[in-house]
Amino acid sequence: MSTPKKRSHQIILFVLLAILALFFLAPMLIVFMNSFKSKFFISSEPFKFPNADTFTGRENYIEGARKIKFANAFGYSLFITVFSVIGISLATSMLGWYLTRVKTWFTTTVYYLLVFSMIVPFQMVMFTMSKTANMLHLDNPIGILVLYIGFGAGLGTFMFSGFIKTIPLSLEEAAMIDGATAPQTFFMIVYPMLKSTAITVAILNAMWVWNDYLLPYLTIGIEYKTIPVAIQYLRGGYGAVDMGAMMAMLVLAMIPIIIFYLAMQKHIIQGVIAGAVKG
Amino acid sequence: MHAMRTALAGALLAVCAAPALAGTVTVITSFPKDLTQAYKTAFEKANPGITLEILNKNTVSGIAFVRETPAGQRPEVFWASAPDAFEVLGRDKLLAKSADIANKDVPDKIGSYPINDPGGMYLGQALAGYGIIYNDAIMRAYFALPNKAVKINSADEINNFATLKAVVEDMQKNKAALGIQGVFASTSMAAGNAWRWETHLVNVPIYWELREKNIPFGEKTRNFDFTYSAQMKNIFDLYLNNSTTAKGLLGAKSVDDAMAEFALGQAAMVQNGNWGASQILGVKGNKVADKDIKFMPIYTGVKGEEKIGLCVGGYLPPGGVTQFLTWLFSSPSGKAFVKNDLMFITPFNTFADNELPTDPLAKDVIRWMNKDGVTSLSWDFSIIPSKEWKNQMAAALGDYIAGRKSWNEVAAHGADVWKREFDLTN
Amino acid sequence: MQKSIQKYAALFVLPALTCFVIAFLVPMIMGVVLSFFRFTTVLDGHFIGMENYRRIFIDREFTNALIFNIRFTLISVVTINLGAFALALLLTAGIKGTNVFRTIFFMPNLIGGIVLGWIWNLIINGVLYSKGMTVVSDPKYGFWGLVVLMNWQNIGYMMVIYIAGIQNIPVELIEAAKIDGAGQGTLLKSVIIPSIAPSITICTFLTLTSGFRLFDQNLALTAGDPGKQTEMLALNIFNTFYGRTGFEGVGQAKAVLFTILVALIALTQLAFSRKREEEAA
Q: In C, which residues are within 8 Å of A27 by CB distance?
């Protein structure tokens, strides 16, 4: 089928895409390249390769990691992300099932409140929420999980109940007639069927929590800096931005995300599409 | 070393609650933890049996914390870099009077400047001064040039704006011969880095206008007309036009950048205070000898300015309120901290001569204060109605640098926003 | 069955609901109420009616942020969607390496706003350096910098939604059009675009909403400089809350207006998709 004309057409398109792909990758590669240059040369010649004068080896990494305590930041980010995601997936799948299977004025109200929370921007509750968190002593890496589950409740419940609506009741009814309690029915029968939705919910929330800046900044930012908070902290109050350390820390911040992405690519893209279409 | 970045206006202490019982002293402060930790260790070593609890919070959340904590559990001492917080807390009646524990031997004023809050709500801890810092080695090199265009022969002879301008512009012409990139270090305009202009430089026109209107020091005024804006323009233009850095790049420059330029010998002058010493002496590759770091006043072209000194303000130590304050100002270890780590000047009473600061800028502030026939300019920027006014000034100065506003617009904006902010805050 | 589930209401409902009430519901109600109060912490307020809403407009900050935000969002919505749709067409044309390209184009979407902001801070300052300028020298640099950043982050995201839409078009539909002698242009106009109308709606509203909500990127790239001239709504609200003592109530009032604006966009989207579903039915 492929005529020479069509083939040359394809080659042109391929080259075009390759150039575009390079443009998409370039910003990350430039940051990577500059992370090995002395800070004095970064703002004046960011597009040049490091040379004998400007190359500093690991210095930016060591200095940056020391300044913002990167290892701690990574630990806090990982802890908060992992446990928020587990908490959200578990709590919202349970709530989603309950709200779908039990129809009362209460469940309807809760459902609409959750949907409403999805459209409210964070700025609306930022001040009052951080005060509430402070008063309830939730301003630590464990307490913040409560806040993430609370903010993640809308999307999670919405997606789980959307899926549960499509599951036929018969299986659950059969289990209950056989004497299973509601928790048994949920965990043995329903939960295994939610796997694909659970992956979607987990991925969307992981991306959100890992990259989130304002919530951790406002609640735990002084004592426990997550990666985004730590990076922004490099700008500091009155000091200069050490661009060398900044470049190195940007690289360290991107590496886990890129690894995660390459490993889970298919799930991530599907999850994001599902989130966009249903959200 | 980190302290001075935050300690723009010297340090202040206010007493929130009745003096502490022995056991625990709680201090709330905006100073960074790595600094206060050193205090804690030293204090507890000197006062066994007393725990010093330091709560590091920024000023805004510090105020919120004091408000939300029930009486009886509030921290004893609020320690901040500027008096704004105390005014808020004072209004809310959350401060206890500290006048009765103030050191009676301490004079009321430095020049026309009261040391402590006249209402007795807060006490000053230390003194600081600012002006134009210059590198005398570069100045001597300039005055030794065979083709210099001015008649005078040393930086000491500069005593008004006209002379300063002639020297600076001629130096800029000869920058290659002097081995500098520009006479003045970058006019730092990055976010949070414009305070050398919107607070410190603005102090000069405020000072002259208040004197002209016979408004006593510390009295607030709704009408600030920016009468001396043309003089501020004189010096600001001089900074901009004879700089190490092109105007377009200033928006990304920080105070640290400017101080580094000075330390590395790329600039001959920089407007800053004695707290900047740590940023000069502490820079890797510092090329400026201690003896060459000197101050001159900020000359702007006001008539009679030959007799002015540096802008001096700050706060004297109280006699002792809690164990912490006594220790801070009277014990050898406490005084060493104030002198060496804070680099504050505290040449009064409890400090003996050999405890005076040794860094070159602090010494030069004292030299200027003691000069015959010279009057220090007081820190009148404390009457600026709000932080917002400073932000607005910084933005307007940025617009002026970029050519989006004329100087007249900057001055008019300053005067307008002053009234608005005065009304909003009073 | 409903009854036997209801016995376990506490177990199923309380974990998520408690968190939701603490993190969202209570702060939301407090927020609305406090927008009519003067306060500096949440417990010391006194009622002042509409005064906070009036104070929003004592200077032009909020209006300027709104105008800047609208301009930014409209331009970004158009460029992102055109770019994403073009890439989706290219990646569904059966060219070799499609998967690799898709992986690359989507990647920036995963990087957080703060990191993105600093990446582009480096690049834009680098480009402007030869002109003796930086991204904060002139508001127009910040504006276009944010547009470029937003495109870089979102094109890949919208692209995968468009690809999914295009791949859902029944093959017969395209074949039939080809047999009828439709050229590339007609195929695009009368088959592809009408078939992916739901994707277009989704992508338009997604970019619209994220454009208005943008915060992290704004903070890291320009922080609103020079002099608040590149400050968008979310950043302006943040700065009002935390940068101006005594203006906490004004910040809360601004947040209420901001919420209404974002909610209106969401309701418009809902109306749009409802209408389409009805038409389809």
A: 108, 119-120, 123, 152
From the list B254, B264, B312, the residue with the least C-alpha distance to B285 is B264
CATH 3.40.50.300 fits B130-310+380-425, yes or no: no
A193-A199-A200-A201 Cα dihedral, nearest 10 degrees: 90
DSSP B221: -
Q: Is the separation of the CB atoms in B69 and B108 below 8 Å?
A: no
Instruction: Look at C16 and A149 and tell me if their CB atoms are within 8 Å.
Output: yes
Number of helices (H), then strands (E), in chain B? 17, 13
Residue C107 touches partner A, C-beta closer than 8 Å: yes
- Chain A nearest-CA residue for C212: A121
3-state secondary structure of A275: helix
For residue B114, the 8-state DSSP code is E
User: Domain C60-280 maps to which CATH number in 3.30.420.60, 2.60.120.260, 2.40.128.260, 1.10.3720.10?
Assistant: 1.10.3720.10
Helix axes C197-213, C233-243, angle to 10 degrees: 20
pLDDT truncated to tens, each residue of chain B (426 aa)? Answer: 222 222 222 344 554 444 444 567 777 876 666 567 767 777 777 777 777 788 877 666 677 777 777 766 777 777 765 555 666 677 777 776 654 555 554 555 554 455 566 666 666 656 678 999 999 999 999 999 999 999 999 999 999 999 999 999 999 999 999 999 999 999 999 887 898 999 999 999 999 999 899 887 667 889 999 999 999 999 999 999 999 999 988 988 888 889 989 999 999 999 998 878 877 876 777 889 888 999 999 999 999 898 888 887 654 333 233 456 656 656 666 666 666 665 555 544 444 445 555 678 878 887 887 788 888 887 788 788 888 899 999 999 999 999 999 999 999 999 999 999 998 877
Separation CA A191–CA B129 (nearest Å): 69
Tell me the chain A residues in contact with residue B255 when contact means C-beta distances shorter than 8 Å.
Answer: 238-240
